Amino acid sequence: SQQGEEDPQALSIQEGENATMNCSYKTSINNLQWYRQNSGRGLVHLILIRSNEREKHSGRLRVTLDTSKKSSSLLITASRAADTASYFCATDGRGSTLGRLYFGRGTQLTVWP
Amino acid sequence: DAGVIQSPRHEVTEMGQEVTLRCKPISGHNSLFWYRQTMMRGLELLIYFNNNVPIDDSGMPEDRFSAKMPNASFSTLKIQPSEPRDSAVYFCASSLFGGLFRVVDTEAFFGQGTRLTVV
Lengths: 113, 119
What we know:
The complex is a heterodimer of chains A (113) and B (119).
Chain A: E1 5-7, E2 10-14, E3 19-24, E4 29-37, E5 43-50, E6 55-58, E7 61-66, E8 71-76, E9 85-93, E10 101-103, E11 107-112
Parallel strand pairs in A: 2-11
Antiparallel strand pairs in A: 1-3, 3-8, 4-5, 4-9, 6-7, 7-8, 9-10, 9-11
Chain B: E1 5-7, E2 10-13, E3 19-24, E4 31-38, E5 42-50, E6 53-56, E7 65-71, E8 74-79, E9 88-95, E10 109-110, E11 114-118
Parallel strand pairs in B: 2-11
Antiparallel strand pairs in B: 1-3, 3-8, 4-5, 4-9, 5-6, 7-8, 9-10, 9-11
């Protein structure tokens, strides 16, 4: 399977702390994306990092990518209760997969006020 | 654009009945995905269309499931007959894919999902 796998499965922190989630994948990629899902809602795209990039920032989000280890991390700094959600990584397969996205099982983040 | 629109938002049906889920992708997008999400199995890709053509339906669990995309602005996922184990949230997503030999960012936009309960 080309699916990404997030780690940990669940993370519980206090407001103001940083949250780090990791993702590992198996095959070569064009890019890796992170999505967020609030309870009962659809997934929302957060940030994309291309295979030739090592780090990317967007607001309080910081994403790193290590293609040699086939892994990525998502850091949310100064977390807020509103960041409580599930976070998924998705990889864009190469070759004949024609833009298909492969999702992991997600990390459930709970931020306590 | 209003985003990806799915209907209905909730569906409760009896076992054996036919269920049809509908999706309107974002205008201009050329790829459409149907996903199923459950606690046990996570987010599973059921079928994937590119330019209205089914590219990969290997995720469709059984012949009871079928999907169509008659035009670029509409897709359906049908389950006939439905079974209790089909209960899940079904998501439709669309994206703009730039082609096999172009490196294009394939960000997916998801609908709000249809929560299906088969009793």
